[in-house]
Write a structure and sequence with these properties.
This protein has seven helices and two strands. It is an all-alpha fold. The protein has a two-stranded antiparallel sheet. Strand 1 and strand 2 form a beta hairpin. The model has no long low-confidence stretch (mean pLDDT 76).
Length: 204
């Protein structure tokens, strides 16, 4: 790893004198990305394919992408990595298009502007369910040097933090107001007839 990275960095330094800032950034990013892919262990988690917009064609492409990735990881061949990157980009584009098409069909309207299907229907709730993510809640907190892992301890730690940022005002020495310099207004009586008359006058 060190030898290959040193070689690539030396080539980068030599080219930097004659390259633009954008070209230098692109070269450095490629070197860093390749080093991460080649040397940092990764685990590919299976993607949930039960979302309604992923069809058979996209599933096939995802499997092919995984096979090409495994091959590139095994051979560390630049050509294989390029093939994997191209497939990854294609799969991402296909997923985005399928997702947008699915949403468009949920909200599809006819020529008269009426929706062909009800918005809040079975497919709509299936979509909402597919977008849900489980929340991990509040992470463990440290309060007064102690680790709070249970719900009560975390709640007390957060409460202590919130209270500490507010000023403890002394209500016994508040200034007294001398009253408003404006006179008190007379009793107001608001009626429907009165408001209607004022409204009609405004229109005229």
């Amino acid at each position: 790893m060190d030898e290959q990275l040193d070689k690539e960095l030396n080539n980068f330094i030599q080219k930097a004198n004659t390259s633009t800032i954008q070209e230098c950034w692109n070269d450095f990013k490629d070197i860093l990305s390749q080093a991460i892919i080649s040397n940092i262990p990764t685990k590919i988690l299976s993607t949930r394919w039960n979302v309604p917009w992923i069809n058979r064609e996209i599933k096939t492409m995802i499997r092919k992408k995984q096979r090409v990735y495994n091959k590139a990881k095994r051979t560390n061949n630049e050509k294989h990595w390029e093939e994997f990157k191209l497939l990854r980009k294609t799969v991402k584009t296909k997923l985005e298009e399928a997702h947008q098409n699915y949403i468009s069909k949920l909200l599809e309207v006819d020529e008269e502007g009426e929706r062909k299907t009800p918005v809040v229907g079975k497919k709509f709730w299936q979509y909402v369910k597919s977008k849900k993510r489980d929340s991990c809640g509040v992470a463990p907190l440290i309060s007064n040097g102690k680790l709070m892992e249970d719900s009560k301890g975390k709640a007390e730690a957060l409460n202590h933090q919130f209270v500490s940022v507010f000023t403890d005002e002394n209500t016994s020495s508040q200034p007294k107001l001398n009253g408003s310099p404006s006179p008190d207004i007379d009793h107001l009586e608001i009626t429907v007839e009165g408001m209607t008359t004022r409204f009609l006058l405004k229109i005229d």
